[in-house]
Specification:
8 strands; alpha+beta; 32% helix; 4-stranded antiparallel beta sheet; globular
């Protein structure tokens, strides 16, 4: 397994991952592909987003690729926090392909992402998940996450917040 940066090489795997996604909202949202938009344009927009263009803060995105060259996960590492990310999104957002959940991929991917936050000088990493996402909470705790006060969004969604101190 390894983390790789999004590129044209991963277009078909990214599209296949999207077709399998089982929730209305892609997590992390930076990997959402809009219909009818060429993949090259998606990559250009992702580069702008990663650079902190417009409303975005600087971030780095990776695919988790298994030994068969299949994209099994996606992760967005945010280099800083604004008010929204401090309450809801955190430094790291990730998702695992539905057919590959409960395999340990998320725990491994988060551990690798924490190595990236180390190189960025982020000593206290905030990671969040929705209250009902028990698997994600366990993944965060398996990587040293200590639960902080939860946050309730306007729509009533309870967001659990965890800190990992490095």
């Amino acid at each position: 397994m390894r983390l790789v940066r999004p590129s044209l090489e991963w277009k078909e795997e990214h599209e296949a991952y999207m077709k399998e996604w089982d929730e209305e909202r892609m997590t992390p949202s930076s990997f959402h592909l809009k219909e009818g938009i060429p993949y090259e344009d998606y990559l250009k927009e992702l580069a702008k987003r990663e650079a902190g263009h417009d409303k975005w803060l600087p971030c780095t995105n990776y695919f988790l690729v298994d030994d068969t060259e299949r994209v099994v996960g996606m992760i967005d590492i945010r280099h800083d926090l604004n008010e929204y990310l401090h309450q809801v999104g955190g430094h790291i957002g990730y998702g695992i392909r539905p057919s590959e959940r409960r395999t340990g991929y998320a725990t491994w991917m988060l551990a690798e992402a924490l190595k990236v936050t180390d190189t960025l000088g982020i000593n206290s990493v905030l990671i969040t998940c929705n209250e009902e996402n028990i698997g994600s909470a366990k993944t965060i705790q398996n990587n040293g996450g200590v639960e902080d006060e939860s946050f309730t969004e306007d729509d009533g969604t309870v967001v659990r917040r965890f800190w990992i101190h490095r």
